Amino acid sequence: MNMLTEMNLGLPTKGAVTGAVLGVLMFATAGAALAEMKAAVIFGVANPVAVNGWDRGQFEGVQKLIDDHGWDVTVAEAVPFPGLANTAENYAKSDYDVVIFTSSGHIKAWNEVAPKYPDTLFVMMSTTSSLPESDNVLAYTSDFYAYGVVNGLVAGLATETDKIAAIGGVPVQALEDMFSGIVESSKIVNPDIEVLTAFSGDWTGIPRAREVSVLQIQQGADIVIGNAGVGTRGILDAVQSTETQFVGYATDWTEDAPETVLTSVLMNIPSWYEQLAQDVESGALTPRIELFGAESFALTPFNDSISAETAQKITDYVDQYVNGELDVPKVNHSFK
Amino acid sequence: MMFLDPDFILSALRTGTPLMLVALGVLVAERAGVLFLGVEGVMLTGAFFGVLGAVYMDDPWAGVLTGTLVGMVAGLITAALVVWLPTDQVVMGLALNIAAIGLTSFLFRLAAGDLSQMTPPLNFTVPESLADNAFFAFLFGVPPLTWLTLVLSVVTSYLLFRSAPGLLLRSVGQDVKAARSAGIDIRVVRTVAMVIVGGLTGLGGAALTVGWVRSFSDDITAGRGFIALAAVYFGRWYPGWTLFGCLLFGIGESVAFRAQMLGGNPHLYLMIPYVLTVAVLALTGRARAPREVGRPYEGN
Amino acid sequence: MTQTAREIVRLENISKVFGSLTALDDVSVTLRAGEIHALVGENGAGKSTLMNVLYGLLTPTSGRIVVGGEDVTANWNTREAIAHRIGMIHQHFSLVGAHSVLDNIVMPTLKWTDFAPDWNGHRARLAELSETFGFDLPIEKLVDELPVGQRQQVEILKMLYEDAKVLILDEPTAVLTPQQADRLLEMLVKFRDMGYAVVIITHKLEHALELADEISVLRLGRKVAEVRKGDGTISDIARMMVAQDYVPATTRLSTPGKTPIAELSGLTIETDGVRTLDNISLEIRQGEVLGVAGVAGNGQNELADALLGLRPLSEGRIVVGGEDITRHSIGARRKHGLAIVPEDRHERAMVGDLDLAQNMILGYEGEAKFSRYGILREREIQEYCRGCMSEFDVRAPGPETKIGSLSGGNQQKAVIARELSAGPKLIVAHEPSRGLDFAATAYVRGRLVQSAEDGAGVLLLSSDLDELMELSNRVVVMFSGRIVGEIQSGDYSPERFGRLMAGLDAKVDGDTLQDA
User: Fold this and answer.
1) Is C81 touching B (CB cutoff 8 A)?
2) Residue C38 DSSP one-character state
3) Residues of chain A neighbouring B118 (CB-CB closer than 8 A)
């Protein structure tokens, strides 16, 4: 059952609908509480639930839409870059109410398609610096600088060699923000710290991510923060093989390698989806970028590679930062 | 020294080992006159089943064995398609690659929950008494599958160029007519060869996943099968030079990993192994493949 | 040694059917130790098919193969044939060019389970065998690097190495110079005397008559006669082969005109300091057939290519009909009255996937009668093609038949039809009857002679001495890129040709044409 279509029947022309999407959605909430939202989520990777980190986090959010809010959700996987706009357009044409993008790499398609289909809401679940020029758009994402700060506090306090490594796939804006946060916060808790950064070159290559990580570890890093998409598995393998420690990205990595995962800094991506569902229900659909700050992050329990004392110290620092008691200057570094 | 330290050599060996195994397979196939363009797919299949075996049997060697056996089956299927049916070996090879991507991605999805764990490591541990000696540390650091690869290359080289079955096989690859008139059953020889070839290629795939990165992802081989194929051409169908070609690629990739730390745009450095491969191929000029490679054999 | 002929192989009532074609129809042949058996017949008569059956390469549709008194028909294959000491040399050799002589000879005797062959033992045995039979081969060399004559020796040694007692040779003299051929035939006699059973497939009837103890004549898959030594003449056998009276070759008597139609002066091709064509000067007169003899690879290809314009000359001048065409393009040369019947018609003279009509106008498609404003006039072309087909006896279902599906003889007739219809001044014919059967050969030769009689000049490059002697007014002999002698039609003898072709009587002082 598609409420947008139903409502359109009562409206004389397409032109009248333009710009009226907000009203329509509000009406729907009030008048047809049982109406089911039809949404499509677009993933660049295949089998997102298997890709621990960012994509699994997104998938958990999708699950929330289905389970908690009764949305009718279609998931498109492994959509190649050239096919993004087309895929999104097809959903819009097929009367989907919401189309969700899950990566910064999708921004171009988002900009391109959103203005063409005013009846559909286009949502970006990732970092973006600007919105498409259209009324039917929303973006939800974390404050990656703050996320980097929390990671930097963990790694900077846990390291015994005073060297930590941050390994990414491709130097996109979100990663640059995150790595900048790591550099600045680790410096505060450990003045001798050296942060090694490297990129594997893509989001899919496990072997390359592994070898790049091995190199950083050979240079003395004993704590590794890694986010290289599918390739993150390679980072984890490098860390495990060298018996160093890994800080999990976005979701809980403990299960993958308990003795190797010091902790994971949870990003709580599902809360973005929760917010989206609430916004749709309440009709708060003015275009905006909703940023989730430090308070939305959480640490999973530490493994026993660090002392209870260090663990406590980390927890204290993170709490201070979340409560605004620890001031970390915002400095943007470039890692290209 | 950044490029000549043991860690660098180990990194090149890790990168090169799967290539070497697969290249050995391709070499045997071409020596028997079969154009093995399906190599990428068979490697991918071996890579997937290697992980599957290692996880479900909780033993990396079981994974290596599984990868090899499944590779042999894939080799047999290849033989059925390109040796027994008079099909185009290029088209069939490419079709097999696409089928392999589909099959492994599909199965990976079914088993994803179980495969989120890393496979058990496949490494020698340095005995305590020798751990401080840099040389022994290096020797024990060489992955077991690299040793196996060296043994297999020597054996393959000997069998191909010193033994009777080697000469008979090479005759099949060079001149079907001569082989036939010596009473050789071309199809049977090529079928048996392809089973061995599939085994080596599957083993190469398992070396990539079980022996190196310990996990699987869709299309994890990412063109490595084709690079092995290029290495065989580079090596002019001789095992020694072919392995050298693979190692060269391994070195190239390892340089790229390191060169990144020297500054500059990482994408440029990541091109190095590919540029190296192309350059080496261009410089070696046109070598002559075994004459029957790629020609369908239609019997009588 | 002196035992009376003992039966080794008996082929009984062999038939072989390929689809709708009956290649062999109820053929029986007996091979005896210490005898040479010749199989003669036209192309496609089934000679090679019969021997391929005996060698296990083909399975007979019906009939029995009896070897040493034992019926071996069931499960007969090449391995079995080799095991029963039968060896065969095909017309096109079955050698691995990229492997050494030793590898080629030893390969068929090796077992799949032999992981460490006794290479030194093999070398020793091969040396011993070479000595016994007087071979001297570089056994570590690659076969690709050997000349054709030596490759044949490799094939023979291969059979002997397998311990073959039945030696089958398919057209063994086709690739040899007369001297080499004589030596081979002597060797076959030696094998016979040593008690081997020798089978020779040949189209040279004189060889068959001279050597064979028994001749089987095949025609269209049937055995039409069996002739014991001394029981027949060439014309008897030739008649049986074609079922019509054989017209013995007539040497041309008509004298050519005096006017030169073409003059070649000082043609030279030099690549990397090697002269593949060395100062060739020839004059071809109107109505003359000028033969060029020589063992393949002594500059004939270069000469033909230079005339056609496929290879640039380093020096020299080509004048046809009074005009210098040295710098003309291939198309301009053809327009100017040069016709070419190339050696390899598949490569140079026809497009197998195009139909007969299209092939008939290849190179002439721009002419007004075949196209207008660049559009082919299909109806006219078809009509023209039908005309050519009937005039030149091209037997095909119709103009739209793909030329590749025709027999060699009809393909060659089609090429001749195209080339001669253009009314050429000079015809360069390179091996025009190679691979053709009796009737087609006679026809093609007849047309060339007729063209000469009509006033064209013909340059005939051929490795078939009989053809040269039959057609040419005079013959020049090429050796290593030069003309080393000339023989007038009255003085032809195979011995003189042989010596010149082998480079024995070559003059070094450059004044080679006056070899009187």
Assistant:
1) yes
2) E
3) 233, 236-237, 240, 256-257
With an 8 Å Cβ cutoff, are B218 and A237 in contact? no
Using the beta-carbon criterion (under 8 Å), do A47 and B109 form an inter-chain contact? Answer: yes
Sort A195 into a burial class: Cβ within 10 Å, 0-12 / 13-18 / 19+.
buried
Among candidate residues A128, A167, A159, A125, the one with its CA nearest the CA of residue A267: A125
Q: How far is CA A280 from CA A41, A136, A166, in A?
A: 16, 11, 37
C119 and C47 inside one domain:
no
**Residue C341 sits in the same domain as residue C205:** no
Phi, psi of A265 (to 5 degrees): -95, 100
Q: How far is C227 from chain B (nearest CA, A)?
A: 30
Structural domain count, chain B? 1
pTM: 0.75
| C288 and C223 in a common domain | no
Is residue A329 a part of any domain in this protein?
A: no
Residue B279 sits in a domain whose CATH number is: 1.10.3470.10
Q: Kindly state whether residues A29 and A151 are assigned to the same domain.
A: no
Is the same domain home to A40 and A129?
yes
Same domain, C436 and C323: yes
Rounded to a whole number, what is the distance in Å from the CA of A30 to chain B's nearest CA? 40
Is C58 within 8 Å of chain B by CB? yes
Residues of B in contact with A236 (CB under 8 A): 118
Domain limits at A282? Answer: 3-142+269-294
Say if A333 falls within a structural domain.
no
pLDDT in tens, chain A (336 residues): 343 333 333 333 333 333 334 444 444 444 344 468 999 999 988 888 888 999 999 999 999 999 999 999 999 998 988 899 999 999 999 999 999 999 988 999 999 999 999 999 999 999 998 999 999 999 999 999 999 999 999 999 999 999 999 999 988 889 999 999 999 999 999 999 999 999 888 888 898 899 899 999 999 999 999 999 999 999 999 999 899 999 999 999 998 888 999 999 999 999 999 999 999 999 999 999 999 999 999 999 999 999 999 999 999 999 999 999 999 999 999 886
In terms of domains, do C226 and C104 share one? no
Helices (H) and strands (E) in chain A, counts: 12, 12
Give residue C102's domain range. Answer: 94-162
| Helical packing angle, B39-56 and B89-115, nearest 10° | 20
CATH number of the domain where residue A191 is located: 3.40.50.2300
Whether ipTM exceeds 0.95: no
* Whole-angstrom distance, CA of residue B135 vs CA of residue B133: 6
**φ/ψ (deg, to 5) at C281:** -125, 125
* Residue B51, in any domain of the structure: yes
Domain count, chain C: 3
Neighbors of chain B by Cβ distance (3+ pairs < 8 Å):
A, C
The DSSP symbol for C389 reads H
CA–CA dist B195, A171 (Å, integer) = 44
